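Recap from last week: sequence in, structure out.
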Amino acid sequence: METLETINKRASLKAHLSSREIEPEKIVKILDAARLAPSARNRQPWRFIVVQGREAVEALVSSVFSETNQIVKRAPVIIIACANPGDDVVIDGREYYLFDVGLAVGNMLLAATDLGLVTHPMAALNEDRLKDVLEIPYEVRFVIATPLAYPAEESYAEAAKERLGQRTRKVLNECVYSNTWGHPFGVY
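Predicted structure tokens:
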């Protein structure tokens, strides 16, 4: 799949997850894509926790995820992205770890899409409870979680088509400013 095609095909559809197991080599490819993301001064502050197995996924989701995200219990894998702010580079008072983790997660989501899998980034969970359940050190911060699953064949294609057809994004001139395109935003 071409990169731009993958970007256009990625959709968050947590209601359309199959419980079909994912091949370990696919999980490794997805995590490797995350690992290869750029990071400020190459500090690579991200850490990923892979929760798999029906009982482990159900227990995690039941105990820490919001009510609206309980549907991801059917996913065979949940990936938790975290970072230790102490591993971060701070330049002129600006922290970079959240940006860096976002880049890594972006790579992960695109790799999963390219491999025919469904993801759905979620932040609505109880971080303190998550740390207790997974024994995550206090100083480490939860950033985002995503189920990783094959699409539920009977419903996914139509739902993805509908979701992507309804996707709204700002047009370029609403979010891109250029001194040569006639849309000055401020001082360059």
